[in-house]
Amino acid sequence: MYCERCGAPLDDGVNFCPNCGAPSGDGPGANPYAVVPHNKDVGSDYLVLNILATIFCCRIFGIIGIVCAILSRGASRRGDWADAASKAETARLMFWIAFGTGLVMNIAYFGFALFVGAGEAGYY
Ligand SMILES: [Zn+2]
To answer: Phi first, then psi: what are they for 9, rounded to 5°?
Structure first.
């Protein structure tokens, strides 16, 4: 596309003409929806973390976290940033609960195995 004021060729997605500085057709002045930052996908990081947490830690909270992360991605695609942020926050919380629960359970299991092992060693 080309600058409306001076006719210079413009790259897609630029907000201002590099030649004369006029707002381009994609810019905030021409299209109010272009102001929304489309590259922000807050749910994706927590989706990966929650999948790992589900595999290695606690399934229940991990799956809740995955669902929230997916809902957050859907909301961010719709441009509903407030909803995306709140779902991502829940996904983040669920990841840490899953991670913490998994950690405590692994330590408890390890401690129990040591305790049983020490008890059995005492018999012989
Ligand atoms: Zn121009």
So the answer is: -65, 135
